[in-house]
Amino acid sequence: MSEFNNTPRLTLLPAVDVADGKAVRLTKGEAGTETSYGDPVDAAAEWADQGADWIHLVDLDAAFGRGSNAGILRKVIRQVRGVNVELSGGIRDDASLENALEIGAKRINLGTAALENPEWAASVIAQYGEAVAIGLDVRGTTLAARGWTKDGGDLWQVMDRLEEAGAARYVVTDVTKDGTLQGPNLELLRQVMARTHRPVVASGGISNLDDIAALRELVPLGLEGAIVGKALYAGAFTLPEALDVAGY
């Protein structure tokens, strides 16, 4: 155990996914599978109060192209001032990116746009550097786009292109695991980390504290953080317990 205690810290990012003005969790990212957990501002404030130093905030309506929760996102970020916010969902052009940073997001997560508009993604990566993470949402080795409703190309080909563009960080989600509480895809994470020197954030599938311990063991290989969603909301463990295992 003492050896484990010497493992560098794993950054945890509790997720606040917003749809129709409410905090929700989806299963495998599919529209129509929402479980509602109330007010997103309250959810974010609770994670901040319990010690989170990052929050992963997602506008699902923007991701699915069916609307926007911009006003609520602004309120959430204002509520948790002092906590870093990674914002995701529907950021596909200069205006939406600049707005995300203007309302106080520390980092934005580019998904679909990085796949569908590589030239724009490359220019954004060059301009904003560390403020931009690339979301790699994967089924097998095929990327998913448009709120995970469309195929977005081969993971390794896209990664080669993003590496060339100088992407600062990757957020890797196994879509088949997300919201299922079936454990993270450690092998996928290892494969991604073997192909980049950039930090990687894991997303999807965390179900218990053992999963967090297993992810922390990958930190020396390049894993920087993990997004925790459904397990927290379902009460599988508390955020303070998770932070303890992660090395806070």
Note the main attributes of this structure.
alpha/beta, 12 helices, eight-stranded parallel β-barrel, 248 residues
Calculate the terminal CA-CA distance, rounded to whole Å.
Answer: 16 Å
| Mean pLDDT across all amino acids | 90
Multimerization status = single chain
Major beta-sheet overview = 8 strands, parallel, barrel
The unreliable regions are none
Helix vs. strand class: alpha/beta
**Helix-strand pattern:** HEEEHEHHEHEHHEEEHEHEHEHH
Please give the order of strands in the largest beta sheet: 1-4-5-6-7-10-11-12
Radius of gyration: 16 Å
- The 3D shape can be described as globular
Number of strands: 12
| Tally of DSSP helical segments | 12
Helix content: 25-40%
The percentage of residues in β strands lies in: 25-35%
Please write out the topology.
Blueprint: H1 2-5, E1 11-19, E2 22-25, E3 35-36, H2 40-49, E4 54-59, H3 60-64, H4 70-79, E5 84-88, H5 94-102, E6 107-110, H6 112-116, H7 118-128, E7 132-139, E8 142-145, E9 150-154, H8 155-165, E10 170-174, H9 186-194, E11 200-203, H10 209-216, E12 223-228, H11 230-233, H12 239-246
Parallel strand pairs: 1-4, 1-12, 4-5, 5-6, 6-7, 7-10, 10-11, 11-12
Antiparallel strand pairs: 1-2, 2-3, 7-8, 8-9
Task: Tell me briefly what this model is.
The protein has 248 residues and is an alpha/beta fold. 38% of the residues lie in helices and 25% in strands. The mean pLDDT is 90.
Give a written overview of the molecule.
The structure is a single chain. Strands 1-4-5-6-7-10-11-12 form an eight-stranded parallel barrel, surrounded by seven helices. It has twelve helices and twelve strands. The two termini are 16 Å apart. It is an alpha/beta fold.
